[in-house]
Amino acid sequence: xxxxxxxxxxxxxxxxxxxxxxxxxxxxxxxxxxxxxxxxxxxxxxxxxxxxxxxxxxxxxxxxxxxxxxxxxxxxxxxxxxxxxxxxxxxxxxxxxxxxxxxxxxxxxxxxxxxxxxxxxxxxxxxxxxxxxxxxxxxxxxxxxxxxxxxxxxxxxxxxxxxxxxxxxxxxxxxxxxxxxxxxxxxxxxxxxxxxxxxxxxxxxxxxxxxxxxxxxxxxxxxxxxxxxxxxxxxxxxxxxxxxxxxxxxxxxxxxxxxxxxxxxxxxxxxxxxxxxxxxxxxxxxxxxxxxx
Length: 293
Fold this sequence. Notes:
This protein has about 290 residues and is of the alpha+beta class. The protein contains 8 helices and 5 strands. Helix content is about 65%, strand content about 10%. The longest helix is centred in the middle third of the chain and has 61 residues.
C-alpha cells in the first residue's frame, strides 16, 4: 500500500510543473481520476498488478497531456475503460463467490438426501421384518414422504438459483481491460467465434492502398492493446471494395504488415476473406482471445 501511495504521489509531483499552463478542466479531471484510483484501491479484492500498472500508465499520459485537451480526453477515455474493466472483474468475482456458495449448499443438501434415503431404506427393512400396526406404519411412511418432498423442494429451489447465477455471468471475460480500451479506436463485439474489432476503412487508408498517418497511429495503438491478450489467431479482413476485387486483399495485407511491424507475432496473423462484412469496413477477428498471463 505504501508503494502505491508513493506512485500516486509521484504522479502528482509530475503534474505540478505543468499546472501553470495546463487547462483547468483537464487538471481537475486528472485530480478526480487520481482520487477514483485511490478509492478503487480501498476495495477488495486487490487490483491485479497488470491492471494497476495500466491505470498508472494512463495517469502519467493524462499528466503529460494536460496542456492538450483533445489528447487528454483520449487518455481519460482509456483510464475510464480500464477502471470500468476493473469493476467488471470484481463484479464477476463476487458473482462467482455467490455461485460457489450456492453449489456448496446444493452439495450439502444432496448429502442430506442420501442420508435420508439410507435411513428410509433401513425403515423399510424394519417394516418388512416386524409386524407393526397399520396406524404406525402409515405414520412412518407419511413422515418419510414428507421429509423427502421437503428436501426435493429445497434442492430444486437452490439448483434454480445456482443456474440463474451461472446464466447471468458474462461470457466475455476474455478481454476485461483490453476490450474496454479497444473501444476508443474501434467497435468491439464478442461472438462465439471470437472478438470482432471493426473499423471504417477510410479511417485507415488514404485514397489509395497506403495507410494514412492517422491510420498508422490507430493500428499502432491497437497493436499495443492486442499485445496484452493471448489470441491464438488474429484474422485480418477487409470488406470487398468498389475499386476492384484485389483492393480488399491488398489493403488487408497492408494492415497485416503494419500489425507485424508494431510487434504482433507473425505466427498468429492471417488473412481472411472479407465476405459478409459491412461495406467500407475492416476487421480484426481475435480467435480464442484471453487475458495475457
